[in-house]
Structure formats: structure tokens, C-alpha cells
User: Which sequence fits this backbone?
């Protein structure tokens, strides 16, 4: 049993020591035990000697048996010793087999080798040689081998004397091994005055060296009795026990803080503590560890915690100045712990820490305060101290600091462990705030320089929140001796510039200069956002001071010095000149203070100086800057004066001027009215303004209307008396009386001015004053002559003016425009006296350049002013006589006094006939002739056949045969359907027209504007309406597509409508266009072949054709003539051009066709890849979009139509569906056969105006896909966009629906971002992940059949197909869309649905749903037909008439 329990063979040493402690000793005897190890005669021995009284019979019986320990009983419920198994002594047999025992009256041997040898004594005398005097009980053990000997020697050498502390009786222990003999002893003091209780000293003596004490340790011993112990079988009857903690307080080798062992009367092990622990722990049988868990041991653990806390209170009671005083502050070192062994000991250590945290055990810096709890104290680190003391000394602050006496013992780590917080900068700042609040604000002035330096070095890097609070404390010393908070307004650091002086009276605070010189304090000040007092801040303060309403405390000298300071440091201010400050000025001898008003200064460079002239005049409105400013600032230096003036002029606050201001806020100023008394001075001021900037319109008007003395034509007519009389006239109506003007334009009205030279008064031209002989002067002279009596007009003078005007170059467009304006305002063509008429003035519009002889009423200018062709033919566009002139003269024939009226009639009719062969005679003119009394009736007069032919031709020409039906019927042509701008034809036509216009007899300059106003449209058809009034009944006949082209003039624009089913190059179309523009451009018949060639030839050949005929197209000029061609049409214009089909064709409802003739933006390049938006093509795009949205709002999902599978198909599985091979169209150019996939009958559908269902990815028919601006592609986009917008607005009711679900490029036309970054072919028009099954519910509400597997993870792919007509119309799908149908067929994760939008332009558009269209195809509900090289045409199955084979399952597919 002992072999099993005790692992070490030397464990018996402790058992023997325990037995010796359990023995009884005689009175007066010092209990002693000696342990000796020796070797003799080749044998190894171990012996013990004890001076007890000797074995009793009971003890001897207990020694020889098992389980008969005498230590089991617990007197008085206590237990203070170990050994309850009764086998402790048997452990000696781990080291040897034979042991000799002598005690009192007994001597015997125990031999393990004998039967029951460990229990049956053999009577034998103790060896005489081994007997020792003075020891009653002796034991001699014959060791088993040398290994045991060595192990015992090692254990004896390491035997610790502290085991004597917790034995009951033994006081001395002697240990003897070869070469060394030591004696361990203890000394107990029940009450130590210095340590306030029990202490114990352990001494070690070297017996071989005169018994010298080589080591001594004094322990503070604290005992605690644990009451109410839990019941424990191994401690039967024990209810209380004592625990002891012992702290080494004095040690000869100064190793006070080394780790100590834990005892259960004898050492157990080192568990990492710096103090001794003794308790009656229940150990494992080998005494190597605690039995855990046990309530008994846990109760002892609580007792140890209480004992430790009691010891701490004893430490705190030790006087600080005594010999043991250091322990008062060093005791936290006992808290050091290194975990070892079971978790039981860590729990013990943590419990001790928690107990200390809750107890007032630490001394604060306040000597008068009681001990504090650790968590109530701060440890002040050295960096927050000054000269060994804290910075802020108040009792309330000291009470929160742990005593500095702890510093000398290196216990900071342990103090933190029990809850003491190390002070940080936030805590320090809070103390500073408390210190300032409790009187520190007054004491801060008396603190040392070192104190301020220390505080500054600590607080300069505070966080934003603390810095904000710091700025509110009065911590900044000022130059005047006061202290202020850093947030004080206008506080600055002293400047380093010694020459800088701040003007007096400025509210500014300067930091004390000595304090600012300290680097730490200066850094601290700058961290508080204090800046050095620089001129810029002073400037800002001056400006702020002047921003106040009252400046009563500022003297005139202060104001002048303020301005001087600002001017001196002007480079620091914004480059706006003088700031908004108050200036002193004088007006009419009175001094004023003003800001933001007009102030004048005297500038010697401005001559004459009107300010100098009028500054002291009574009533003068000029407020002149006080001369003190220039005297103080400039000191007579010329360059400084000039810079000062420039500084004043740049001011945007006050208005400084060296010359009078004439207009302010759109009104004439008092200065104007003051100077008006002296016209010359006023005009000199105007001249200055003219030379220095843009004139205000009000000034221009005032100067133009200014009344000045003048002399004109009316004055000259009075002779010498008139020449001496001066008339007051508006300056803008006069001319400058220069020698040249008075000589060449004597009829003008001249202003009376001193030194009338252009150099002096040329600026007056800005006010309509004529100053030079230019076009304006000649026109004014011509107008002046026209006011004279006609019989007094000198024709030569007029002719000379015409010649001057003819010299104007065509490039001088302003002059040409002025000529046209003046001649258009009044008759200015002078017709001299002739035999047939008196001299007169007529309009140039009533003149012709050349005319045939029969025309007698026209004024021929070519014969009168042939050298003025440029004026009349070029600028005034006077033309040769035309058929209009013949008609005018013919209609006035009845008023002529002519002897032979018939001959005159014949002449004019013949002339009319000759003109008619070259010019078109409008119906209006024919009606004039028919209504005029110009047909002479000569009864009985015979006429020749030739004359009759002429008359019949003329009658036919004049429409006198009222029986012609064509003359009675009214005919109108109106486009039907949407009007699509045809950019290609339009641009081609304009290019050809620019070439054709070069054939005009009048040149092409005037045709550029007409060509720019041409707009070409493609329409579905042209409706010709003919109306005949027959009495009370009207007959109206409509005919569609009789006309291929219609040209209509409206709002100065030429609209050409071409049927979209006809090629623009067809002969009839081109003929109509050629005929119209040949007449418009007045192209002779001789050039008709060339015109046709220019119309039909390729555009690239046109320059070559022109060159062959010696013709060249002039370069286009970007002048004002076509400036209005890009203006958008008004809404009224748009509304007036709306049209619709007949009432019996309801494919497009009335009022829905909003695409009308308005201006549109032509793309920069027809070949560009950038497709323009619909809103850029159609002005009505927004209006149409808004109407589509309104229709979507009132649309109900329950109104939708649904294509359904037959019941048999719905119940069948995909494998049972009929296998129908769908033709897959490959990418090839060779046409293939048309495919037909189903024998089911389909009703033939007439496509409404040839428009199929479209989408944003609508496949275009052959020949149209290469140009996105072709008419067909624009139409597809337009219809497709409307359908997609309609669907988008309807589905926007679904939660989570947005523009990101619109996955086609068409969403750009709705104003959303482009669908980019992904391939559009991989998406349907709309894509929606139905995470919350909102789409599923919406489709169910519409009656759409849903696949059972469609759920919250289903993505819906919605493809929109739109038409303007019936829902049964076929529609297009592309190969890619067919592939997507097949891909998503019968899939739970994806749903492909076709949304067939129909009647999109009607009042109630509809939607038909084709859910899973591939299944519909497989079951014959849909048929896909593929024409060669085109997309699929999709037809819907309908019930065939008379065919019983088609069941009613497919009925209801149509609306």
C-alpha cells in the first residue's frame, strides 16, 4: 500500500518529521529532531534522533498496524495535525528493508523481508555503536542502495526550514549529511509592536562554523479560523480549522519577494504565490496535490482570502517612519502571482484581488483622508508631476491620487491590478478644470514659469473636444496683464516685426510677449488656434469696425489712418481695391462721412478736371475725397498717388471716380442735370465715358435726345436771317459740321459745336450723330432732299447719291441692310419730269430695271440710272418686268385714255402670252384679269384666224371658259398617318437644290434661305380631296395615294411630303419637285435638261457636272439670313397640322397623331453610330410619352387578353408534346425557301398601313438595318418605344420595379440612363427577379397561366411586341429571341413571356400575354414563318370559319 501511495522513496522524511511533531515532550525540553545520513563499512544508513518522552503502548500499536492512526480524533471539533491513514511510518520501507527502533522501554527490528515483516516486530537490541545520548527515540534505517542514498541526500540538502512554521511542537530540526551540518529553528512573537500582531522568525545555523546564523527570515503571520466547515468523512467531526498566511517582511539575504510554498502542515508545493499559505487541505494520498473539487478545500480558500485582507490592514497600520515602515507601501508586491498547479489556486488569487478592489486599503495624497478604495484613486505618472509634486494642488484633487510613497517600491503594476487607474491626459485636464473652477483662475497668475511650461507641454496636443473646453478657460496672459480665454475675439500672438504698429482704437488682444517667447508656451498657444498678429488680421479688424453703423468714437484722423493702413497692406486683401470702409469727403464746402457711395477725387491726368472746377461751387453734387488722404498716404510722391487712385477705382464697394457719373441704377444722376447747364462740359464727360467703357443704354438715349443748338435746311431757306438763327434740336438727329459733310451733304441739320472736327467730336457717332461721309450720311442726305418740293430737287444730286450708294461693297452687310431699311421705309427713287409725268418720288418696289415697250406704266430704272445697277438690282432687288407687271397694266387698261383700246389690249394680251410661256401665272392674278373691265367689245369686227388663235389661247390661259370642271372643283392634298422626318432625302435634296439654284437668272444669293427652310417627311399616304358645289348640294370625293408627292408652304417653311411606299427617285416625284423649285428659282426652260441631270445624278458627280457647264457653287456663308431656320415651331403650329385617317379607318384614333411639321435637329452625320433620341427627332415626343403614361394609369390588368394552351396540352408532359421542327435561320446571304410549319388555317391579316408589331430589338426588313435614321427604322423605334413605355408604367405598380428592370436601349428615350455594359441580345425588354413574388401575383391577377415551379427565385423575361392595330396582327421576332424562348422553356428559374401590346395609339390600348411562347408554338397556338433573309413572322391561331376540326379551345384568343 505504501509503495502505491508514495511515489518518492524519500517521502518518509516528511512522515518522520510529522511523527516527531506529534510526539510528547517533557516540560522544559526544547523539542528537537535530528536527521543524519552516513556510510560505514560499505553500507549506507539513515537515522533519526528525537528527545521526546518515548513510545507509549498505544503509539507502538499504531506504528505496527495499518489504519490505527492516533490522529483521527478531533478534540473540540478541531484538527491541527495530519495522518489519518496509519501507514505514514511504513513509507520508510521505500528506502530500505530493515529498520532498527529504540524508544523508551522498547527496542526491536522491522524486516520487510520477513513474513509480515513491516508489521511484526522482532525483538532485538539497538546496535550499541549507534546509540546516541540525550535522545529517547532513535531510528536506524539500512538503505537499500546507493541511489536511495543519493536521493535522500538531495532531499535533505533542499529541505526548507519554513516547515517549522506550521508544525505544532517541534522547534529545532538538525540535519547532518556528509560534509555539512545545519540546524533549523524558529522563534515566535505573539505580538510584535511594529507589525501589530504575531510574527515568526526562521533561522538557519551552520553547526560546522561555530553555530553561526547564516540566514534569518522574519514573517508577519496572520491567522484566521474558518467556522462552519462542510462535513467531510476524512475530517470526521471537524467543524472549524485555522488557516495561516505568512509574509516575509525581513530577510537577511533580502530575497523577501521570492516565491513561497503552500503547506498542509508539511510542504505541498510551490503554487506561484509570494507568501506562505498553511491550511488543513485534503490532499491526494501521495500528498502531491489537493483533492478537487471539495467543498472543504473551497471553504479553506475563502478563509485564506479573509486572512490576506486582514494582513493588508496590518500592513497599512505599520508606521511609515518605523523600521518596518517600508512594508506599508511595498505590500502590493505580495500580489504577484505565476499560475501553477490546478485552477484552484488561480481562483484563490483572483478572489484576493476582488476583495482588495472592494476594500479601502490604499493611502491617498491627502494626509487627512482615510484609506480609499483602489478604483477611487489615480496614479499620477512622473510626466504629470513637477518637482515631485502634482501640477494642481487642491485637497479634493489630492484625495483622488494614490500616495507617492508607493513610488519607491515599484508596485504600479500591482496597484493597477487591484483597480488603481493610471492618470491620462483626459483625467489631467479634468483636474485642471476643477482646479480652475475652485480658485485656480486667480492663482494661475502666481504660478512659476516652469509650471506654465509644463502645463503647456502637456496640453498642446489635446483632442478636439478637450481643446474646445480648454478654449473657454482664462489661461492666456495678455500684454496688459490680464488673462483671457483663447476663444476671446480678436486675440493674437505678438508679431515678430518690430516696426509693425496697429492703429489706435482697434479691438484686439495681444498675448504677453515674454510668455510667447517660450517655445513650449508658443506651441501651446498656436495649438489653440492663436495666430501671430499680422497685418491681414488688422486689416480685417479695421473692415469689421467700419461695418458697424456708428463710428462716433473714430476721429477723422483715425479714419484716414485706417485707410492708410489698408492701402499699405493692400496686397493682403482681395484684389478688389478699397474695401468697404468709411471715407471723409466734402461737397459744397461741407464735410461728410460716407461709405458705399460715389466719391470723386481729383486726377491731374484727367483734363479738363471738372471735379476741380466745380468742387466748391454752390449746389455742386460732387462729393470730393478729403485731401488729408493723399497728404497722409502719398506724401506728394507721384507714383504713390497714381497707385492710390488705381486702388480707389478698383473698389467694388465705394464708387470712386475722377469724372462725373451720369447714370446710376438706370437713371440719370444729379451730376447729369448739373452739367446739363454747360453742354460742352457735359459732352466732354460723355466723351470720357465713351473712351473708357461700354455706354449705358440710358445714357445713349439721353445724349441722343439732348437738345443742342443747330442749323438746318429750313434755316438756310430763310437766307441770311436763317443763318444767324439757331434752333434747339435733338443731338441724335444732327450731323457734325465738318467741312466735308457741309460740302457733300449740305441738306443735313448740323450741330453748333466749337472746333467741329472729327478728332474732337467723332465719339458722337455712338449717339447717331453723323460725323463722316458714309452710307448713313448719304441716306440721310437723300431723305433730306426727298423732303424738298419735287420741282426743287436736283436730279444730278440725287443721281450722285445713288452712285455713292452703289459703291458700297456687298461684304459690308450692315450698310446693305441699312440701305434696304431706309429705302423700304419711304419712297426714295426719284423720277424726273418727263413728257408724260411730273417729277415724283416712288418706291423701288414700284420700279423695274427693264421692261418691254407695251408696258407704259412702269418706271424703268435701267435707262435712268444705268450706272447704279449694284444699288437697285443687287441691294434693292429691283427686277425686270414680269408677268405680274403685265397683269397690273392689263387690269388698269380700262382706266387709260386710249384711242385704240383694242389694239392696246391685243398688245398686252400678246405680251401676257409670251410671258406665260416662261412664267407661271397664279390663279389669283387670273381672277383679277377676269374680274377687271379690260376686255374690249367691238361689235361686227372681224378678226383673222391668227388673231382668233391668240385670243382663244389667251382665253384658255385666263380661264375664261367657266365650263371647265377643273376650274370649278376645289382640290386639297393632305398627308395621312404619322409624319416621319426623312433625313436622307432631305439632305440629298438640299445639296441638289444648292447646285440647281446656281442656274437662277437672278443668282443664288437669295435662295440660300429658301433652301434652308425645306423639310422632307415620309407619310403613309397622301389624300386628295376634291369638292364641287352644285347648288345646295356639295360633292366631296377622297382619293388615297393618287399623288406621290405634295409640296406645301407654311410658316415660311417648305414641307415636302413623300409617300413612304414609293421611292423618292421615281419620275413623278422628281418631276413635281423639279417643277416647283424651277419656278421658285426662276430657271429658264433652256436649263431644264441640266436641272434633271442634277436631280438624278449621284451626289458625288454634281461638282463635275457643274464644272462641265462652267458653273460653280459658292461657299456657304453663315450669315443672319438663315438664323431663324433652327427655331422650334410653336405649339399652336403643331396643333394646326394634326391629321388623322378617315372615320371608317380606326387604326389611328383622331387626335393621336402628334408627329407634325416642326423643326427638328438633324444629326451631325447620317453615317454616325450615335442614334439620336426620339425627342431630338420629334418635337411632340414628350407629349406622346405623357399620354402613354396616362393610358397606363387607367389600364386594368383584368382587361388583359391571354393566350392559353388547350386543356389536353396543359395536362401533357413535355415529353408527350408533338415534336415540330422550327426552322433555324443561319447567317447567309443566299435567299432560301419560305418555311411553313403547321397545316392549321390562319386568317389573313391586312397590316395596318404596313406596320408590324415592333420592339426595341425589332428585326428590320432587308435594306433598312444599315441606317438607323431610315424612315422605317425610325417608325419601328417610335412604335416599339410607346409599347415598352406603356408596359413599364403598368408594371411600376409592382414593389421593387424600377428603371434597372428595363433592359433595352429604348429606355434612353424615356429619359433614363443607357442600358450599357452588357450585351442587349442576352436580355428581353424587361428583366425582373421576383424575390417577393409580386410579379407572380400581378400575372395571376391578369389571368396568365403560371408554371407551378415559379417562385421567389424566378427571373421573368418580358419581351414587348407593339402594333397600332388589332391584336391579331402578326408580329416579328428575331432568331435571338426564338433562342431565348427555347432556352427558358419549362424552367422554374426563368419565365419567358411575350407581351403583345396592340392599339397603342388608340384611346384604350390592350395587352395580350403569351406565357411560355415555345410551348404555344409546339402546340400550334403560334406559328413562326421565316421569309428569306428576314426575321420570323409570328401568326396567332384563330378559329377557322366552317372548319369543325378546329375546336373551341382556341377561341377567345382575339379581342
Assistant:
Amino acid at each position: 500500500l505504501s509503495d502505491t501511495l508514495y511515489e518518492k522513496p524519500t517521502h518518509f522524511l516528511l512522515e518522520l518529521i510529522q511523527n516527531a511533531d506529534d510526539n510528547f515532550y517533557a516540560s522544559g525540553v526544547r523539542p528537537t529532531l535530528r536527521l543524519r545520513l552516513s556510510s560505514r563499512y560499505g553500507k549506507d544508513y539513515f537515522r533519526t534522533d528525537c528527545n521526546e518522552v518515548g513510545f507509549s503502548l498505544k503509539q507502538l500499536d499504531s506504528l505496527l498496524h495499518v489504519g490505527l492512526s492516533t490522529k483521527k480524533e478531533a478534540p473540540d471539533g478541531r484538527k491541527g495535525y495530519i495522518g489519518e491513514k496509519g501507514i505514514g511510518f511504513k513509507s520508510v520501507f521505500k528506502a530500505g528493508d530493515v529498520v532498527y527502533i529504540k524508544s523508551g522501554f522498547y527496542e526491536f527490528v522491522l524486516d520487510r523481508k520477513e513474513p509480515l515483516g513491516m508489521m511484526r516486530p522482532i525483538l532485538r537490541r539497538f546496535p550499541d555503536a549507534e546509540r546516541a545520548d540525550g535522545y529517547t527515540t532513535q531510528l536506524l534505517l539500512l538503505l537499500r542502495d546507493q541511489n536511495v542514498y543519493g536521493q535522500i541526500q538531495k532531499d535533505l540538502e533542499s529541505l526548507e526550514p519554513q516547515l517549522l512554521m506550521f508544525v505544532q511542537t517541534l522547534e529545532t530540526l538538525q540535519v547532518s549529511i556528509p560534509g555539512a551540518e545545519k540546524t533549523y529553528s524558529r522563534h515566535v512573537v505573539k505580538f510584535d509592536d511594529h507589525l501589530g500582531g504575531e510574527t515568526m522568525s526562521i533561522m538557519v545555523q551552520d553547526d560546522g562554523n561555530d553555530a553561526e546564523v547564516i540566514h534569518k527570515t522574519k514573517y508577519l503571520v496572520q491567522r484566521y479560523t474558518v467556522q462552519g466547515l462542510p462535513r467531510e468523512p476524512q475530517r470526521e467531526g471537524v467543524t472549524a480549522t485555522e488557516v495561516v498566511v505568512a509574509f516575509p517582511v525581513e530577510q537577511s539575504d533580502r530575497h523577501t519577494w521570492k516565491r513561497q510554498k503552500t503547506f498542509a502542515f508539511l510542504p505541498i508545493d510551490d503554487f506561484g504565490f509570494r507568501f506562505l499559505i498553511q491550511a488543513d487541505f485534503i490532499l491526494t494520498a501521495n500528498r502531491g496535490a489537493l483533492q478537487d473539487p471539495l467543498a472543504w478545500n473551497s471553504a479553506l480558500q475563502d478563509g485564506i482570502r479573509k486572512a490576506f485582507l486582514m494582513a493588508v490592514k496590518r500592513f497599512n497600520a505599520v508606521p511609515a517612519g518605523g523600521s518596518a515602515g517600508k512594508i506599508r507601501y511595498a505590500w502590493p508586491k505580495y500580489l504577484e502571482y505565476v499560475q501553477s498547479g490546478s485552477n484552484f489556486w488561480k481562483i484563490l488569487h483572483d478572489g484576493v484581488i476582488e476583495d482588495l478592489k472592494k476594500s479601502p486599503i490604499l493611502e491617498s495624497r491627502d494626509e487627512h483622508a482615510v484609506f480609499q478604495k483602489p478604483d477611487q484613486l489615480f496614479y499620477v505618472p512622473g510626466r504629470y508631476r513637477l518637482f515631485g509634486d502634482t501640477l494642481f494642488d487642491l485637497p479634493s484633487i489630492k484625495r483622488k491620487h494614490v500616495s507617492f510613497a508607493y513610488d519607491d517600491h515599484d508596485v504600479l503594476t500591482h496597484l493597477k491590478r487591484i483597480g488603481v487607474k493610471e492618470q491620462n491626459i483626459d483625467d489631467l485636464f479634468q483636474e485642471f478644470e476643477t482646479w480652475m473652477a475652485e480658485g485656480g483662475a486667480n492663482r494661475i497668475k502666481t504660478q512659476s514659469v516652469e509650471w506654465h511650461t509644463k502645463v503647456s507641454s502637456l496640453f498642446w496636443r489635446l483632442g478636439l473636444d478637450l481643446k474646445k473646453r480648454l478654449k473657454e478657460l482664462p489661461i492666456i496672459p495678455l500684454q496688459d496683464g490680464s488673462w483671457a480665454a483663447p476663444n476671446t475675439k480678436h486675440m493674437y500672438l505678438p508679431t515678430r516685426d518690430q516696426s509693425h504698429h496697429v492703429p489706435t482704437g482697434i479691438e484686439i488682444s495681444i498675448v504677453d510677449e515674454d510668455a510667447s517667447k517660450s517655445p513650449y508656451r508658443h506651441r501651446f498657444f498656436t495649438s489653440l488656434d492663436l495666430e501671430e498678429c499680422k497685418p491681414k488680421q488688422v486689416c480685417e479688424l479695421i473692415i469689421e469696425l467700419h461695418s458697424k453703423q456708428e463710428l462716433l468714437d473714430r476721429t477723422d484722423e483715425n479714419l484716414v489712418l485706417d485707410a492708410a493702413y489698408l492701402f499699405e497692406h493692400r496686397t493682403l486683401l482681395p484684389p478688389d481695391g478699397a474695401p468697404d470702409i468709411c471715407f471723409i469727403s466734402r461737397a459744397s464746402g461741407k464735410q461728410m462721412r460716407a461709405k458705399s457711395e460715389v466719391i470723386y477725387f481729383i486726377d491731374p491726368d484727367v483734363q479738363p478736371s471738372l471735379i476741380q472746377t466745380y468742387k466748391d461751387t454752390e449746389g455742386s453734387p460732387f462729393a470730393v475725397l478729403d485731401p488729408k488722404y493723399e497728404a497722409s498716404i502719398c506724401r506728394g510722391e507721384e507714383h504713390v498717388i497714381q497707385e492710390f487712385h488705381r486702388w480707389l477705382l478698383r473698389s467694388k464697394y465705394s464708387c470712386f471716380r475722377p469724372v462725373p457719373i451720369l447714370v446710376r441704377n438706370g437713371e440719370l444722376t444729379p451730376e447729369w442735370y448739373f452739367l446739363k447747364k454747360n453742354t460742352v462740359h457735359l459732352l466732354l464727360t460723355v466723351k470720357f465715358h465713351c473712351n473708357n467703357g461700354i455706354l449705358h443704354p440710358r445714357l445713349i438715349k439721353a445724349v441722343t435726345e439732348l437738345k443742342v443748338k443747330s442749323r438746318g435746311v429750313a434755316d438756310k431757306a430763310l437766307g441770311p436771317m436763317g443763318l444767324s438763327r439757331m434752333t434747339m434740336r435733338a443731338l441724335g438727329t444732327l450731323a457734325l459740321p465738318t467741312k466735308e459733310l457741309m460740302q457733300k451733304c449740305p441738306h443735313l441739320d448740323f450741330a453748333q459745336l466749337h472746333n467741329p472736327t472729327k478728332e474732337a467730336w467723332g465719339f458722337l457717332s455712338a449717339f447717331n450723330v453723323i460725323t463722316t461721309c458714309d452710307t448713313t450720311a448719304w441716306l440721310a442726305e437723300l431723305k433730306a432732299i426727298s423732303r424738298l418740293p419735287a420741282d426743287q430737287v436736283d436730279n444730278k444730286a440725287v443721281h450722285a447719291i445713288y452712285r455713292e450708294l452703289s459703291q458700297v461693297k456687298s461684304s459690308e452687310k450692315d450698310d446693305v441692310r441699312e440701305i434696304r431699311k431706309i429705302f423700304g421705309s419711304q419712297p426714295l427713287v426719284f423720277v424726273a419730269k418727263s413728257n408724260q409725268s411730273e417729277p415724283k418720288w416712288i418706291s423701288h418696289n414700284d420700279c423695274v430695271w427693264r421692261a418691254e415697250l407695251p408696258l407704259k406704266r412702269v418706271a424703268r430704272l435701267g435707262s435712268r440710272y444705268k450706272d447704279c445697277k449694284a444699288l437697285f438690282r443687287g441691294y434693292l432687288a429691283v427686277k425686270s418686268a414680269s408677268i405680274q407687271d403685265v397683269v397690273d397694266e392689263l387690269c388698269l387698261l380700262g382706266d387709260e385714255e386710249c384711242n385704240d383700246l383694242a389694239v392696246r389690249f391685243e398688245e398686252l394680251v400678246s405680251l401676257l402670252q409670251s410671258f406665260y410661256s416662261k412664267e407661271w401665272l397664279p390663279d389669283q392674278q387670273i381672277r383679277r384679269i377676269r374680274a377687271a373691265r379690260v376686255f374690249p367689245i367691238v361689235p361686227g369686227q372681224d378678226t383673222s384666224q391668227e388673231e382668233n388663235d391668240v385670243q382663244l389661247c389667251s382665253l384658255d390661259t385666263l380661264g375664261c371658259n367657266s365650263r371647265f370642271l377643273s376650274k370649278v372643283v376645289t382640290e386639297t392634298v393632305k398627308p395621312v398617318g404619322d409624319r416621319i422626318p426623312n433625313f436622307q432625302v432631305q439632305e440629298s435634296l438640299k445639296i441638289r437644290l444648292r447646285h440647281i439654284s446656281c442656274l437662277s437668272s437672278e443668282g443664288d444669293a437669295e435662295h440660300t434661305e429658301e433652301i434652308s427652310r425645306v423639310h422632307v417627311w415620309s407619310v403613309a399616304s397622301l389624300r386628295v380631296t376634291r369638292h364641287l358645289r352644285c347648288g345646295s348640294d356639295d360633292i366631296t370625293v377622297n382619293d388615297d395615294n393618287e399623288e406621290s408627292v405634295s409640296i406645301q408652304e407654311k410658316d415660311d417653311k417648305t414641307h415636302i411630303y413623300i409617300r413612304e411606299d414609293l421611292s423618292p427617285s421615281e419620275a413623278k416625284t422628281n418631276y413635281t419637285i423639279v417643277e416647283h423649285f424651277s419656278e421658285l428659282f426662276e430657271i429658264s426652260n433652256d436649263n431644264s435638261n441640266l436641272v434633271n441631270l442634277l436631280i438624278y445624278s449621284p451626289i458625288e458627280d454634281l461638282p463635275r457636272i457643274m464644272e462641265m457647264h462652267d458653273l460653280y457653287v459658292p461657299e456657304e456663308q453663315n450669315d443672319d439670313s438663315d438664323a431663324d431656320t433652327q427655331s422650334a415651331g410653336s405649339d399652336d403650329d403643331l396643333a394646326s397640322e394634326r391629321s388623322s385617317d378617315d372615320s371608317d379607318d380606326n387604326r389611328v384614333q383622331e387626335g393621336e397623331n402628334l408627329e407634325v411639321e416642326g423643326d427638328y435637329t438633324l444629326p451631325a452625320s447620317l453615317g454616325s453610330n450615335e442614334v439620336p433620341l426620339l425627342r431630338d427627332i420629334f418635337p411632340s415626343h414628350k407629349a406622346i410619352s405623357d399620354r402613354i403614361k396616362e393610358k397606363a394609369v387607367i389600364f386594368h390588368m383584368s382587361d388583359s387578353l391571354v393566350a392559353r394552351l388547350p386543356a389536353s396540352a396543359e395536362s401533357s408532359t413535355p415529353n408527350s408534346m408533338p415534336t415540330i421542327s422550327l426552322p433555324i435561320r443561319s447567317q447567309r446571304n443566299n435567299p432560301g425557301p419560305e418555311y411553313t410549319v403547321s397545316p392549321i388555317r390562319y386568317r389573313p391579316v391586312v397590316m395596318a398601313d404596313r406596320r408590324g408589331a415592333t420592339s426595341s430589338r425589332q428585326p428590320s426588313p432587308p435594306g433598312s438595318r444599315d441606317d438607323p435614321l431610315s424612315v422605317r427604322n425610325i417608325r419601328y423605334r417610335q412604335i416599339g418605344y410607346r409599347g415598352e413605355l406603356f408596359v413599364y408604367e403598368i408594371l411600376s405598380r409592382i414593389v421593387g420595379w424600377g428603371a434597372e428592370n428595363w433592359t433595352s436601349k429604348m429606355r434612353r428615350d424615356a429619359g433614363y440612363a443607357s442600358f450599357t455594359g452588357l450585351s442587349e441580345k442576352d436580355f428581353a425588354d424587361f428583366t425582373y427577379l421576383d424575390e417577393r413574388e409580386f410579379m407572380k401575383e400581378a400575372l395571376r391577377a391578369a389571368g396568365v397561366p403560371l408554371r407551378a415551379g415559379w417562385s421567389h427565385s424566378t427571373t421573368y423575361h418580358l419581351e414587348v411586341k407593339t402594333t397600332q392595330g388589332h391584336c391579331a396582327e402578326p408580329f416579328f421576332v428575331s432568331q435571338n429571341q426564338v433562342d431565348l424562348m427555347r432556352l427558358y422553356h419549362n424552367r422554374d428559374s426563368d419565365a419567358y413571356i411575350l407581351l403583345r401590346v396592340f392599339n397603342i395609339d388608340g384611346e384604350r390600348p390592350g395587352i395580350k400575354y403569351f406565357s411560355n411562347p415555345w410551348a404555344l408554338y409546339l402546340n400550334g397556338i403560334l406559328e413562326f414563318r421565316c421569309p428569306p433573309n428576314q426575321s420570323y413572322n409570328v401568326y396567332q391561331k384563330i378559329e377557322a370559319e366552317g372548319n369543325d376540326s378546329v375546336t373551341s379551345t382556341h377561341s377567345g384568343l382575339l379581342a
